[in-house]
Amino acid sequence: MKVRDVMTAHPVLATARDADRDRVRQLMEDADIHHVPVVDGDELVGVWAQGEDGSVFLLGGDRVIELSAEAEADQAMSALMRDAEVVLVRDEGLPSGILTRADALAILRTALGRGVGKRHPQPTVIRVAGARGTGKTTLIMRTLAQLSGLDAVVLQVNEPTGPASAGEAREVVDGSAHWRAGLGRAVARLQDAQLILVEDRDEDPDLSRGIGEDVQVAVISALDMGRVPTAHLRDAQAIVLTHAEEATSDEAEAAAAACRERFPGVRVFVVGQGAGDDGLVEWARWVHGSVMRRRG
Prior knowledge:
Elements: E1 8-9, E2 14-15, H1 21-31, E3 35-40, E4 43-50, E5 56-60, E6 64-68, H2 73-81, E7 86-91, E8 94-100, H3 101-113, E9 124-130, H4 136-146, E10 152-156, E11 170-173, H5 180-189, E12 195-202, E13 215-221, E14 238-242, H6 249-262, E15 267-270, H7 278-295
Parallel strand pairs: 2-3, 6-7, 9-12, 9-13, 10-11, 10-12, 13-14, 14-15
Antiparallel strand pairs: 1-8, 3-4, 4-5, 7-8
């Protein structure tokens, strides 16, 4: 986010000649503002400020930080949290906007109201394993769309081959998260999330060993279920059979039944690509329930 995205445009300015306190106070009342930068030609001199008691006083130029409109917004926020009273924004050298401490507080209140930065007792970490072509990434994206009320992060183990694909959710790429130590470090950095969906390597799922996740999920094409070794899936908490639209309804049901027989106690979901897919809804509810159960 850039400074231009959060600034107040078209700031009211005073010249070095406008040194009359009463005139400045009247200008503030007319414009309903509390800060007026003072310029002498193109040079910034200082800033008139109004205190909580209504008094108006002139501060030196050292209390004003000048930034380009294309600067990162966090630069302005950092300056206002330190000694700056005002950030004067310039666009091609001309004053184009202003940010004050009051603006910073308003942005903070808005962020807090939306739950940004909210800390949770402990993220629920769900590792999603599956070979390339099983629809693993698509499943995660469609699942996130069903879980918009959760603070979710996609922890991507594979190197990205294109732009970020997590939609509105955060996506973090960390190849070391395939291993226990790496996953532990990544989770420690993501403590503001409620749910971390780890998209594991693009290879046949082997969930015979845990790496510190809370839930292990295998994603397998419905017609390929028979070729995955039983030992690799015994520790899974859920199996999602994808590409159901490529099988007949009888084939999909037979695959699910065989899967449940092979792995009693493991939740099995059959998911297709169609809109309003009941299997997707059931799976997303199960994921949501997994998060809620951990929260107590």
